[in-house]
Amino acid sequence: MNGKGLRMTIGRAMAGILAAACATGFAQQGILVEAEGFADKGGWSVDQQFVEQMGSPYLIAHGLGKPVDNASTSVNIPTAGSHRVWVRTRNWAPGDWEAPGRFKVLLDGRALAPEFGVHAGWTWQDGGAVNLKAGALRIDLQDLTGFDGRCDAIFLAPDGASRPPDDPKAMGAWRNRLLGIPEIPPSAGAFDVVIVGGGISGCAAALAAAEQGLTVALIHDRPILGGNASGEVRVHTIGITGFSDRILKRINSEHWPNGSAEALADDRKRHATMDAEPRVKQFLCWRAYGVATEGGRIVRVNARHIETGEVKSFAAPCFIDATGDGWIGAWAGAKFRYGRESRNEFGEGWDQHGDLWSPGTPDKRMMGVSLLWNSEIAAAPSDFPDVPWAVAVSGTNVSVKGEWFWEFSSDRYDALDDAEEIRDHVLRAIYGSFANAKKLSQFASHSLKFVGYISGKRESRRLVGDYLYTLSDMTEGRTFPDAVVTETRDVDLHFQRQVKDPAYPFDYLSTALFKKVPRYYIPFRALYSTNVVNLMMAGRCFSCSHVGLGGPRVMNTCGQMGAATGYAASLIKKHGTTPRGVYEKHLDELKALVRPGPESENLMSPEHGGGRKVEAVDAATPAQRIRGSFEIASLPDALRSATRVVAERGDSGKPARAYRFTVNAPVDVFIAVHSRGDAKLPEGWTKTDMVVAWKLGQDPVYKRPFPAGVVAIPGHPGKEGAHYGLPHLAFVLPSGPARSGGLTITGVAFAE
Description:
By secondary structure, the chain is of the alpha+beta class. The strands form twelve sheets. Strands 30-33-41-35-37-36-32-31 form an eight-stranded antiparallel β-sheet, with no helix packed on it. The longest helix is centred in the N-terminal third of the chain and has 23 residues, at 3-25.
């Protein structure tokens, strides 16, 4: 059994024990059965994303339009008698149509009369009165649609018991009382640092801290680590690994297409890395729900298991908020920013783009949430249900897959308070667009393969540190004495296409603006709270403006933040100090951990090429399609002995760059041309009958002779959808008599 299966099995067993205990202990008040605690979840999945908004994890029937298998559990009824059944659920797309997420509740195999999931908003729906026998009672949830029906809990109320409360605060206290949840949870053990959030930044922090001998608690609210990079979301990691390459390459991803099932292989790599570190105690499927503070310092973080409801408290000298949404900081009273600053506050305007880039007046707009999705072609045609509730959002759009720009934010919705509605809006857009496609003959055999339901977030709270990172730090390539992160990628900010063009028909599709900047750096002072003395933050909740987030928000960069805070935690323990104390008194030690060798120090030079590299490698080097990714499956025999010149991918939203190099003798140059779009090679390049095979296709090979001197490799302007082709991979072979000293290649660089 793999690690995930083991964790889920233990969770189900504990859920059954908890449900039985609750049923026995509170029979006179009623029996509360939490859906996420069902012993057998069948095809239903646990969704914990919106606890702060609606009060609890719940089960969701995410079947892509095909009803999922029943979820079931058993509870003990101590005394026979009449009970009224209340089911907490919601109609997630109310309107003049049948609710999309309908389901039935079965007691000992008999369905209750109502269909559930038909009332707008989270509420307790009346299932009617039933006579129950004493003893074991089996409860089933039967999905009717496959379209994301959701069940939070079932309450079996004896005669005379009142309807469960709907008010979130009252309901929370009521649930805790019924489930026996203590106000102060029992201790989970002693730790040197507590990290909340198991995305790339949290995992990197844990590894760095453990490397220095610390005992680490890593709290993560899903069974799979990786956050947006996980197989549950499937965004490939981008940005450079910078100072933290050694750590990040063990937990980040290959550059597979967004939404690809190849994410699952990187999940296995990541979990193997984390499981091999004995000092990191992983608390997977645990969601933090609050903190205790004393004198501006966090004393403990409280967390609840998303299936069993068990609670624990986690104490340590310091804490790292890697939640993305800044929950730990917010609960502790940390200062934070939310939304877009005025362009005048930090001089972050870009005149040609105006409010699209940065507003004249501060607002609450921010980058949105994406759900990646795709389909596959089956052997035979298939049907897809009518989804008027989805077409109401999708409009006439036709699509069979969705990339990063399937993104939604709106002035109507708060990124935190309305997080479920934002996610659901994208789900409706996906189902409606696919339903439109299925009405066309060319898509008759397509069926949905993957649709994410875990939100891929970009921005919400940004906790304030001793330094607030802004656009000028990037445009000026500003260096800092406490630089612990470096990056080279453009600043890119997303906005909905309707913001630029109100007549654009689809409010769930975005676009982006990219601003080129030199190599830039992030100081440690932006990674700890200015007013919560023992709190650090890593990831997209670090201390920055909205525009300042635009460059560093991607996962490899966030991972560098995580590693830096993990190393800082070791100095906090060693010296009995605070994050600010590390900066003020132990900065040289921190830099020695973050930047241990000359290669790291070289990255401090703004002239260093960093992540935008192109280089020549000999034939003995393992062949890759682009630098650092995509192993070549097979090479033509004629090219096996060639020196290769390989470039990094760069931004897939822009044409692949041209590059050049100098040779000391006449050569024949061959280039593998990515078959995405039309490469439009300059005159002089001749297509051969050779191809280079790699995991995502076969690229045709073109040839051109060059005399001694400069060799110019063209860029790749071809584009399909939102993505441009990969840079050309060059093979260089001498074309004349052998030269004394052999062929040399120098001056390899991207063209200006």
